[in-house]
Amino acid sequence: SLPHLSPPPILCGLSYCRPPALPAARSAMASTITITEAKDGKTDDGHRQYRHIKRMTPEAVLAVCAERNMWSQPHLNTQLYLNYKGFETIEGLEDYTNIRALHLGNNNIAKIDGLDRMSDLRSLHLEGNRIMCIENLHANLELRQLSLESNAIR
Predict the structure, then answer these.
(1) How far apart are alpha carbons 105 and 145 in whole angstroms?
(2) Is 60 helix (H, G, I), strand (E, B) or coil?
(3) CB-side neighbour CA atoms (13 Å) of 14
């Protein structure tokens, strides 16, 4: 077992301070483990290879809502802050139909997808991801602001 590591200090003004302890619910933030195997079930060195994928499941979104003091009932939220969470895909947002501002910046998202039920979406923040193509926004007729800085769009 690994020793408990405390978070690194953060510079606050002119002095260092420690961030608050992470809540227990954070471990349920839908980080899943998948096993990738070669044809014989093992990698070149004979061991299984594990890769962590951060999925945006409904449970993960609900946990972020609780952490960031947003409504626990999806239809009550008009803004959703899912930035800086390491999500790789946009999914699990089917019940969030009244969202007007969606903050997904600084994750690991490669494709714009899963937003077709957000017909009231006016502001979409996707800066700092891996997006290569602007697509799948045909249902978002109210969209007025699209932030895509620091992506892989050419």
Answers:
(1) 14
(2) helix
(3) 0
- What's the one-letter identity of residue 98? N
SS (HEC) of 61-77: HHHHHHHCCCCCCHHHC
143 SS3 class: coil
* Cα angle for residues 35, 39, 40 (degrees, 5° grid): 90
CA separation (Å) from 8 to 16, 18, 91, 140, 144? 10, 7, 31, 40, 39
Question: What letter would DSSP give residue 41?
Answer: S
Residue 38: both structure tokens together: 């070669």
Question: What's this model's pTM, rounded to 2 decimal places?
Answer: 0.68
Q: pLDDT (tens digit, 9 = 90+) per residue, 110-146? A: 999 999 999 999 999 999 999 999 999 999 999 999 9
pLDDT in tens, 57-100: 999 999 999 999 999 999 999 999 999 999 999 999 999 999 99
Facing residues of 146 across strands? 124
Instruction: From 127, 71, 134, 126, select the one nearest 99 (Cα to Cα).
Output: 71
